[in-house]
UniProtKB/TrEMBL annotation:
Reaction equations catalysed: 2 a Fe(II)-siderophore + NADP(+) + H(+) = 2 a Fe(III)-siderophore + NADPH
Top EC class, one word: oxidoreductase
Species of the source: Geotrichum candidum
Protein name, UniProt field: ferric-chelate reductase (NADPH)
Region of interest: Disordered: 598-621
Principal subcellular localisation of the protein: membrane
EC number: 1.16.1.9
InterPro entries: FAD-bd_8, FAD-bd_FR_type, Fe3_Rdtase_TM_dom, Fe_red_NAD-bd_6, Ferric/Cupric_Reductase, FNR_nucleotide-bd, Riboflavin_synthase-like_b-brl
Keyword terms: Cell membrane, Electron transport, FAD, Flavoprotein, Glycoprotein, Ion transport, Membrane, Oxidoreductase, Signal, Transmembrane, Transmembrane helix, Transport
Length: 686
């Protein structure tokens, strides 16, 4: 047990060891002498024994002076040891007092050579002069221990450097897309097409990306794209390799007398430090205000995928760290709970596992608001546990950096809320659980296609809740200073909004606090044909881009706008937008209302019937509405791709099945157009 205590205290000293090589002079000697029975009181602590034992003091001094005859170096190196005498042994002793003890024993010729000891396990009666072989083992033990602890920082840094390289590649591609878009459009050779079909566009296994893979209905997972999986594969492989390489196991060893115990200790230390090195990327990738999203052009979804996998890697290291240490302490497991660092380490590991458990797709996709609140609370306590676990040992820079990143994200959120100010939303309820908000806001920021906002409804209960909503500009030029969002009432916040509007007879002015805009804008101006495929409420995302292209009169592009929706009421709540597209004369509109119209009373939705009639008046070769039919989306879009001119973009936003169908369609048709085909997905995955 005393050995474990000494190694814990050595861990406390390691941050200074990294900065002060003189400590490498001290610890091998103190450790080597500690292998002998110093005749101390059995109840004395590690430092109480050593800091009061003249035999230990003189033996350690002789060892240090044998290695370095410069007494100034010895004095400099031993200062930290003296501080631990006071802090952990409650023994106040100075360098001069120790040095005087050594000189008295030296003058009295009290030293005994280790080789002359008849029984090395018996209590020492005089100071000793260590054999060179004993000292060599102690030095190798210390330097190996030092390396194995340092390897955690080194290998964890390599893992984070890997993510830095992934980000750099993404940022470079994004930069090229902005400064040399024509070059990107020209990259359409057969070899490029085959590469994209094999490695970038499909999901990891086939084309199930938006549709979660499930086991036993409870365990489900949103499968990354194949490009994302390539990045994740590199990370996973690095985790495995860097956990298993470069362990220097040897006997005899000053600390551990078996290979088994050595590997447990080295693996425990390495994985514990590696877990801490994950903190900055974990919090950066999971935040809304992520500067890397701007640099790479990646969506919040992409960073969320990486955030979840980094969290899994971090908790995996924490679990290995905890299990290895539990094996290491063996029969002293219960006694370790007397140490605060051990208790907080257990708390942190349990909380880390709990965070992973409550973050499964099944829970977060069904109870997002509850998931988010619990997630944040657990994360806070997890950070607190990690802080108190290592506050005396070091590596706190990883904790502090995560605090800084989290604080930055929260401060920027508050700044956005203050800058955006309050908005006034003219809110209206429509059939089939649809609500629509026309928002007058401060105009301190400008809307752009692909943007979304979070908003807080100013009410006594639930004002802290926020959801991402796609926004678009009002189609009426006289109201272009307003933004619009549409939503479907499900659970939580959206259901509360629906209920509020229901109580207010279907319409109400709601005061909002806006946080945004967020999101990346796809550059569509270099495509000759732009195909937009929307399903249900996803039409708000595709409309934003289509309307933006139409507003640019100098752009001569073929725009195909396809909307598949279940209900006839869509022609009511989205009538102005469809009218705007139809009147442009530049957009081929194909709308499919899959559900047969249901009879309603004359008084119910009379205004909706009027708008439906208006919308039907635009039926023409450029604008068609088909009812009671669900189209074959794959064949429909494939036909448009084959008929397209030049470079073609396919943007989709809809339910998971539609998204994955379009992903497969785009992949299969990369070589069937007259130019490059790009697949763009606007979707929020849980």
């Amino acid at each position: 047990m005393k050995l474990l205590t000494s190694l814990y205290l050595l861990l406390v000293a390691l941050p200074s060891v990294l900065a002060d090589s003189n400590d490498q002079l001290v610890y091998p000697c103190t450790n080597a002498v500690s292998e002998f029975d110093l005749g101390c009181d059995p109840l004395a602590t590690y430092y109480q024994c050593r800091c009061t034992s003249n035999i230990f003091i003189s033996s350690a001094f002789q060892c240090m002076l044998d290695r370095d005859n410069n007494i100034d170096h010895v004095e400099e190196g031993i200062q930290e040891f003296l501080s631990y005498c006071l802090e952990y042994g409650n023994v106040s002793v100075t360098f001069d007092e120790m040095y005087d003890t050594y000189k008295k024993d030296l003058a009295a010729h009290n030293f005994t050579n280790e080789a002359d000891l008849k029984n090395k396990t018996a209590p020492l009666t005089t100071p000793i002069i260590l054999d060179p072989e004993t000292l060599e083992v102690a030095i190798k033990t210390f330097t190996t221990f030092y390396w194995e602890v340092y390897s955690g920082t080194l290998f964890g840094g390599i893992m984070m450097a890997y993510w830095g390289a992934v980000i750099a590649i993404g940022a470079l591609i994004n930069l090229i897309q902005h400064i040399a878009p024509k070059y990107i459009m020209s990259c359409n050779s057969p070899s490029v097409i085959k590469f994209r079909q094999a490695f970038t566009i499909p999901a990891t296994f086939g084309f199930k990306h938006s549709i979660p893979m499930s086991w036993m209905k409870i365990f489900s997972m949103a499968t990354p794209t194949r490009g994302q999986s390539m990045a994740l594969l590199g990370y996973v492989v690095l985790n495995i390799i860097l956990c298993l390489v470069k362990f220097d196991l040897f006997l005899p060893n000053t600390y551990y007398d078996s290979y088994h115990m050595q590997i447990c200790r080295y693996l425990a230390d390495r994985t514990g430090v590696i877990a801490f090195t994950h903190f900055p990327a974990l919090f950066l990738f999971g935040g809304r205000n992520n500067i890397l999203a701007w640099a790479t052009g990646w969506s919040f979804d992409t960073f969320n995928v990486y955030h979840r996998w980094i969290a899994r890697g971090m908790v995996m290291h924490a679990v290995i760290h905890s299990v290895a240490y539990s094996i290491l302490v063996g029969d002293y497991y219960r006694e370790e709970f007397e140490n605060p660092y051990w208790v907080w380490g257990v708390v942190a590991t349990v909380l880390g596992c709990a965070i992973l458990g409550q973050s499964i797709h099944f829970l977060r996709s069904r109870y997002y608001e509850v998931f988010l609140i619990i997630h944040i609370i657990l994360a806070i306590f997890f950070l607190v546990g990690c802080y108190w676990h290592c506050v005396e040992m070091g590596w706190m820079e990883w904790i502090y950096s995560s605090w800084a990143i989290w604080a930055f994200d929260r401060v920027v959120r508050v700044g956005r809320l203050v800058w955006s100010g309050f908005g006034r939303a003219e809110s209206k309820l429509y059939p089939d659980d649809i609500f629509k908000m026309t928002i007058s806001y401060s105009q301190r920021w400008k809307y752009y296609p692909g943007s979304h906002i979070y908003f807080h409804v100013m009410r006594p209960w639930g004002f802290w809740e926020s959801h991402p909503f796609t926004i678009y500009q009002h189609p009426d030029p006289s109201q272009s200073d307003k933004i619009i969002l549409c939503g479907t009432a499900k659970e939580g916040m959206t259901r509360n909004i629906y209920n509020d509007l229901s109580k207010a007879s279907g319409s109400k002015n709601i005061t909002l606090l806006l946080d945004g805009p967020y999101g990346h804008r796809h550059n569509l101006q270099h495509y000759n044909t732009c195909i937009f495929m929307a399903g249900g409420i996803g039409v708000t995302a595709t409309y934003a881009y289509a309307a933006d292209l139409i507003a640019k009169a100098d752009m001569n592009q073929h725009i195909v706008f396809i909307w598949i929706t279940r209900h006839e009421s869509a022609l009511e709540w989205f009538s102005e937008e469809m009218e705007y597209l139809a009147k442009s004369g530049r957009c081929t509109i194909q709308m499919y209302i899959t559900k047969s119209a249901e009879p309603v009373s004359d008084t119910e939705h009379s205004s909706g019937q009027e708008k439906n009639s208006d919308s039907d008046s635009y039926n023409s070769p450029m604008y068609s509405i088909t009812r009671g039919v669900r189209p074959d989306a794959y064949e429909l879009v494939s036909g448009h791709i084959r008929e397209s001119n030049g470079n073609t973009s396919i943007m989709v936003c809809g339910p998971p099945t539609l998204n994955d169908t379009m992903r497969r369609c785009a992949t299969d048709n990369l070589g069937n157009a007259k130019g490059r085909v790009d697949y763009l997905e606007e979707a929020f995955s849980w």
